């Protein structure tokens, strides 16, 4: 397979523009553009001491409608909001910043707030706990029998951060909260010891923040493993820095690496995160996605349902239609995870189902590859299939798309209808006093069906 039409079309007018990142030190200047007062900007600085902030020139110049900020959805997607955290926490840190408190004091206050935000939902860190006297493999999560996630050490940042990001703990400078590894040989040994694994998801952060030589160092060794059917790359870069595949110095080399994966007989799935239709508008995105697809890779799209950003059916319908036009495969609508500012961004499950249904019914069957709304909860990915009435009682119908115990996959179960519920733990069983899957927790006794819960370790 060879790259075709390597040159960017004339409509792509950002050739040569270099990447420029903006961090918390630029917040005051940038938020002033949104017309915020000095006190509002100070509160946003306070939030940014707890949660990470990073954006770039492409997002700022091409995606945000500054005339509509701070209500603009793309602005809200990357810039902290004053009410993302409890008012008392924001006031406390704002006061420290106002009086010029020592950095150590500000950091300590920020750490206290972070620890209240469930930094690692779904038992993520527990997936690396040593069990059966075995050592964990850094950077590895064996979430489901056939699927391993890997977090490369050099991929622990992104071109820009989303305010809703459930992996915010990777970016706040606290080593104990990070998941990262750089020993690819050890990863290979782990995979060989677990022949049930057929798919590796390279994630982060964002793996596409890595240059091609580093990315190659992680990917090439995996091509030697016959057991692997697919390699996935989870990335927001197609939305936040499409230059990565068009005008960056190593764009062509990266595409050749993608080709090599496909030529090795592996399915290369590029898991692209698009949260709003505007991210799909620039010509650069069309050209970058074309070049990726020309390597034989499949672009699958996913995003969470986020209040104030994309919580209307028309937004999702528009997004799925545009993705289909660009040759992408709509894959997941997620529910905002139970971490970070979930209270601020979460949409109740009942409303999430309505948004999904009302968007889904208006698109063609080719868009209906999408699944959702799905919760990536501790026992697995739980999909809300609908609302029914049985015996005069209103109930949620749900099923597992993925489960740490495969026996529960695609088996429907029921929960009492609760219009305020936003997460699996808010729901109550409709029949009996417990859900069928309760008891599936990481780190427990190992049985035939919960071996993956024991954590990734080498024999």
TrEMBL record:
Keywords: 4Fe-4S, Iron, Iron-sulfur, Metal-binding, Pyridoxal phosphate, S-adenosyl-L-methionine. The keyword Iron applies. Its cofactor is pyridoxal 5'-phosphate. InterPro entries: Aldolase_TIM (IPR013785), Lys_aminomutase/Glu_NH3_mut (IPR003739), rSAM (IPR007197), rSAM_sf (IPR058240). Transmembrane segments: none annotated. This is KamA family radical SAM protein.
């Amino acid at each position: 397979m060879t790259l075709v039409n390597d040159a960017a079309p004339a409509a792509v007018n950002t050739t040569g523009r270099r990447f420029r990142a903006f961090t918390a030190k630029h917040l005051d200047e940038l938020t002033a553009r949104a017309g915020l007062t000095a006190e509002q900007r100070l509160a946003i600085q306070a939030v940014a001491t707890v949660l990470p902030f990073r954006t770039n020139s492409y997002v700022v110049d091409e995606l945000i409608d500054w005339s509509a900020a701070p209500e603009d959805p793309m602005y809200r997607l990357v810039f902290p909001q004053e009410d993302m955290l409890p008012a008392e926490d924001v006031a406390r840190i704002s006061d420290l910043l106002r009086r010029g408190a020592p950095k150590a004091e500000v950091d300590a206050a920020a750490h206290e707030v972070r620890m209240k935000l469930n930094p690692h939902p779904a038992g993520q860190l527990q997936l690396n706990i040593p069990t059966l006297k075995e050592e964990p493999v850094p950077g590895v999560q064996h979430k489901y029998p056939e699927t391993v996630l890997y977090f490369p050490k050099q991929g622990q940042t992104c071109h820009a951060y989303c305010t809703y990001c459930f992996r915010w703990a990777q970016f706040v400078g606290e080593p104990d909260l990070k998941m990262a590894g750089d020993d690819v040989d050890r990863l290979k040994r782990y995979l060989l010891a677990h022949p049930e694994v057929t798919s590796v998801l390279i994630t982060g952060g964002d793996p596409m923040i890595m240059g091609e030589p580093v990315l190659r160092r992680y990917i090439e060794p995996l091509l030697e493993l016959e057991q692997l059917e697919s390699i996935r790359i989870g990335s927001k870069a197609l939305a936040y820095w499409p230059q990565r595949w068009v005008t960056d110095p190593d764009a062509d080399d990266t595409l050749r690496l993608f080709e090599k994966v496909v030529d090795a007989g592996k399915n290369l799935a590029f898991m692209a995160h698009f949260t709003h239709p505007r991210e799909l508008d620039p010509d650069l995105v069309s050209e970058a996605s074309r070049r990726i697809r020309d390597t034989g890779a499949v672009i699958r799209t996913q995003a969470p349902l986020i209040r104030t950003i994309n919580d209307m059916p028309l937004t999702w319908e528009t997004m799925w239609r545009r993705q289909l036009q660009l040759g992408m495969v709509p894959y997941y609508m997620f529910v905002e995870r139970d971490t970070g500012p979930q209270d601020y961004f979460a949409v109740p499950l009942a409303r999430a189902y309505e948004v999904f249904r009302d968007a889904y019914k208006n698109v063609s069957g080719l868009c209906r590859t999408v699944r959702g709304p799905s919760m990536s909860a501790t026992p697995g990915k739980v999909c809300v299939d609908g609302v029914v009435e049985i015996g005069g009682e209103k109930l949620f119908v749900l099923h597992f798309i993925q489960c740490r115990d495969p026996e529960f996959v695609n088996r429907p179960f029921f929960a009492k209808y609760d219009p305020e519920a936003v997460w699996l733990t808010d729901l109550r069983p409709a029949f009996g006093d417990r859900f069928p899957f309760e008891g599936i927790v990481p780190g427990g006794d190992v049985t035939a069906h919960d071996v993956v819960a024991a954590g990734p370790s080498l024999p």
